[in-house]
Specification:
By secondary structure, the chain is of the alpha+beta class. It is built from 17 helices and 20 strands. The structure holds flavin-adenine dinucleotide.
């Protein structure tokens, strides 16, 4: 559908000419998010700067029955911000105001376009930070984080986005402005804040967020374990948790990722290691050294050939930069890559990682791994050449088989990147028809005409009754789907 001139004029009257764009370069730039395997140009991109402008635009699009999507920084990795049916993209980048810092209540109120890392930078001098730290935190927005309920390396100890949001202001798809929560914990009645967080931009557009601030730890110790097998690195993860210690973070990089980060960032990881495990402990100075020594022993007992400690802040920063910029570093060794995101019980890490390696070998593509090991949140990176259609097809197949493996091992479709467009049809593998219908009824309550971010999170109408593999699921839960998914992927159960 073209962006016809009357509609454009009405948008321009609300926002001014410069904030309404449908030129080919803009439409190309907004055709996809961080998952470039899925792309479709929007009808137009509009840039509201105030809540009043936003509500007017939403009411206008609603009146014309044109679908629309809120977009933050576009770093999403599940196609959540990819326009369907030529939707209009509502870019929220101009909502980047820090409205208030309330030290007594330890909250910060921000616009959804504020970049995640900016929040911590804003309050750091007073000894606070915003705890959820996605590896994309230099670029992604807090609005996108809420929509995806994002995690990050330090969410192992501190919890994901939903644990750090106390209130929000939202605009419903008919333009109604609603506030939820406040500066205090807990509201009577159903947890609408929790419902909104992780709804992937399909319930409402978030316009203001009250976040909880976390005091900076007194000190942190960052350990690096070196391994001659991925399996032993996984054993270390289980052994630390079994011992009753919850580190702030436990992140793993495999041999292929080590090669890429060494090429790009030179953190000093050994190129002959099969895996490195980053373990960070934080808290009060008293006792942390003792705890670190216990962890060092556990790492060695479970197979680490070498364990070292970051000696100062610059060594610590070097290790974390290598982890947080690992996805980008993969560009050094492959023209493109497809990041999968699955979650499994931590204890299943060794088996599933072996399986992932075999799936890659079977299809003839390399799969690298860098992931939140402590959470059992895998990020296999499937390396392919976007100019080779056969490799593109294979990367999809490998991604599907990895998801099958996660489900079969008692896990789920996403640890933190969301369902988006990428995995919407896969929801039938995880939930029964009744469960999906119930969830969709909730979406319909907020978004009755499905004008806000259509095609995301849930299967397309008519697909709900059948599982993706063509077999009707019998009940909620993953166990009864195990065989269905396994049969589809050709993996023996
Ligand atoms: C290199 C890299 C590393 C990453 N590491 C992590 C990680 O460690 N942990 C993690 O969880 N994710 C990670 N991600 C994924 C991604 O950064 C997160 O999902 C992030 O929250 C997306 O934010 P965004 O602003 O880019 O949102 P977008 O991609 O613009 O949008 C994502 C979804 O949010 C919705 N949305 C955006 N703004 C609003 C709003 N104001 N109101 C309602 N809905 C809205 C959109 O409609 C869309 O559905 C990573 C991505 C990359 C590229």
């Amino acid at each position: 559908m073209p962006f016809e001139s009357n509609l454009r004029r009405e948008c321009e009257q609300i926002l001014g000419k410069e904030w309404v764009k449908d030129d080919p370069v803009t439409l190309y730039a907004y055709r996809c998010d961080g998952l470039t395997l899925y792309a479709a140009p929007p009808m137009a991109v509009v840039f509201p700067g105030t809540v009043e402008e936003l509500t007017s635009i939403v009411k206008l699009l609603n009146r014309h029955k044109i679908s629309f999507i809120a977009r933050g920084a576009g770093t999403g990795l599940s196609g959540g911000a990819v326009p369907q049916d030529k939707s209009v993209i509502i870019e929220m980048a101009r909502f980047k105001e820090v409205h208030e810092v309330d030290w007594e209540n330890r909250t910060i109120t921000v616009g959804p376009g504020v970049i995640n890392l900016r929040i911590s930078e804003h309050v750091n001098s007073e000894g606070f930070h915003y705890a959820p730290d996605p590896s994309s935190q230099k670029a992604c927005t807090i609005g996108g984080n809420l929509a995806e309920n994002s995690g990050g390396p330090h969410t192992l100890k501190y919890g994901v986005t939903v644990n750090h949001v106390l209130g929000m202001e939202i605009v419903l798809p008919d333009g109604e402005l609603v506030t939820l929560g406040g500066k205090h914990l807990g509201m009577p009645g159903p947890d609408l804040l929790g419902l909104m967080t992780g709804s992937e931009g399909t319930f409402a557009i978030i316009t203001k967020i009250i976040c909880r601030l976390t005091p900076n730890p007194e000190t942190a110790v960052t350990l690096l374990g070196i391994y001659s097998s991925v399996r032993e690195a996984c054993e270390s993860v289980s052994s630390i948790i079994r011992h009753g210690i919850i580190p702030a973070a436990m992140e793993m990089l495999d041999k292929i990722t080590i090669a890429a980060v060494e090429k790009a960032l030179k953190p000093g990881f050994p190129l002959d290691a099969e895996a490195v495990l980053i373990v960070e402990l934080d808290g009060l100075i008293d006792g942390l050294d003792d705890e670190a020594r216990v962890v060092e022993n556990l790492l060695k007992e479970s197979g680490a050939t070498e364990v070292s400690r970051a000696r100062d802040e610059s060594e610590r920063a070097k290790i974390w930069r290598a982890r947080k910029e690992a996805f980008g570093a993969i560009g050094q060794i492959s023209p493109s890559y497809y990041v999968q995101d699955g979650v499994i019980p931590r204890s299943k890490l060794p088996e599933v990682l072996d399986e992932i390696s075999n799936i890659g070998k079977k299809h003839g593509l390399t799969v690298a791994n860098v992931f939140h090991a402590g959470d059992g949140n895998l990020h296999p990176l499937i390396l392919y050449n976007y100019e080779n259609p056969e490799e593109v097809e294979k990367s999809h197949l490998i991604g599907e088989e990895i998801l099958s493996s996660c489900i079969r091992h008692g896990g789920a479709l996403s640890g933190e990147h969301g369902i988006g467009l990428e995995k919407a049809e896969w929801m039938t593998e995880l939930y029964s028809n009744d469960s999906l219908k119930n969830m969709q009824n909730v979406r319909t309550f907020f978004n009755p005409e499905n004008l806000l971010n259509p095609g995301k999170l849930f299967p397309q109408p008519g697909r709900c009754a059948e599982s993706k593999s063509g077999t009707s699921p019998k009940s909620t839960g993953v166990l009864d789907k195990t065989k269905i998914v396994a049969a589809k992927s050709g993996i023996a159960v």
